[in-house]
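Researcher: We're teaching a course module on how sequence relates to structure. For the next exercise, students receive a sequence and then see the predicted structure as tokens, so they can try to spot secondary structure elements on their own. Here is the exercise chain.
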Amino acid sequence: MKANDLVDLAARNLRESSLRNSLTTLGIGVGVASLVAMLSLGIGLQQLADRRLARSGLFDTIVVTSGRSLRGFGRAGNREQMPPAESRPLDEQARIEMAGLPNVLEAVPDLRFVSEIAYEGKSHLTMVAGLPPSARDKDAFEGMQGKFFSSDAADEAILQIQFADELLGVHPRFDDAGSKLNGQTLSLIGKELTLRYAERSGALAPAQPKASSNPQSPPGASRNSATFSVFEREKKLHIVGITDQDPEGMRGIGGARVFVPLEMLENLHVMLPTGLRGGEMDFSNSPAYPSLSVRVRNPSQIESAQDAIRKMGFNTFSILDATRGLRRFFAVLDLFLGIFGSLALAVAALGIVNTLVMAILERRREIGIMKAIGASDGDVKKLFLAEAAVMGLAGGALGVGLGWVIGRVINVGTNFYLRRQNLPPENLWAVPWWLVGGAIAFAVAISMISGLYPAARAAKLDPVEALHYE
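Model: And here is the predicted structure for the students to work with:
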């Protein structure tokens, strides 16, 4: 039997019992719709998490510390590194080398210190941190009131909302949901505050011989000596923005509440805590950093960048392992959503079996005539499988459209709730093209599998008995 004849005959047979076949096709559509809706929700949630991690700056960032830093002690996975006392300092030269590595966008020093902030004659002690220009794309500054720094060397500051309330003398109760931006808080934008800090100034002295108390020390052993001075300084800063989110949410109690441009902070030559640890800085003129944040072009390049930095003698940390665990979680979530979404499709498959079995009983004479005039068992099988495939194709297309509508309704309802809670809207669902094609193909495959038993039963009919039955 030719393919076009097979398709025409299958379409004619489906039109004859249009109501029953339409209900069966509708059942397939509902099953596919539930499958598409659930999988699109899982995919949307995964994409939402990926976007949030990417915008947070954690997804493509490596935190680098020196072996001399106390934070680098006891780190597993860096066994090939030299002892801490002999480790290379995390200085400006090391930063430049890391910034020049392949696929590295920037290597930013983590500069932060506890400082006194004066506002309207009152002093407040808090943590101050420097931010690079790339920080403007972080989620924490998405809904910020005011603006980001006008330049990387501007005398400007962005306040975290809790510190802004502290400047105003507002102390929220512990049972409050938290501080909220209001007219009083926003009045700080454009005001001026004073940053009081300790400036370090010193020069490296030539190497001088020194007698060692260790009898095994070689004669003429020398060391570098340095002298430095500390001066009390003040810097006027203009408040340009207030954020109600924490740009350093993962840092905890070490997080800053006042943020200033990184380049401006570097030009102040602030006496950092590392400046008091001679073993880490050697009191050189080259600044040493407690840590660096190295940002790569793509999260897939994290591992190679980490290997290169470890070979330079530094400790590294990234959330690569954590994101792998997150991806495994979403893979399992998608699997369970797919299983539950397929239950309705399994019920629809039983409907296909019932429809085609009933068709065999109603069309015994037709099957008998076909076999009597030369149709083979294979032709009869193909006919019933073609009918099942047509119902699967129509039901799959209907189900994809219905699933898309369900996803839109879920998304609109969720965003309506988020707006009622004063939260930004989110896209919680996604229907990629591979899901559309896969759902339709899956519906056709399930329909044809469901049609195997009725097709085999129809092919086994004896034409004589079939005609006698009529």
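Model: If you want an answer key for the exercise: The CA atoms of residues 350 and 450 lie 7 Å apart. The chain has 14 helices and 13 strands.
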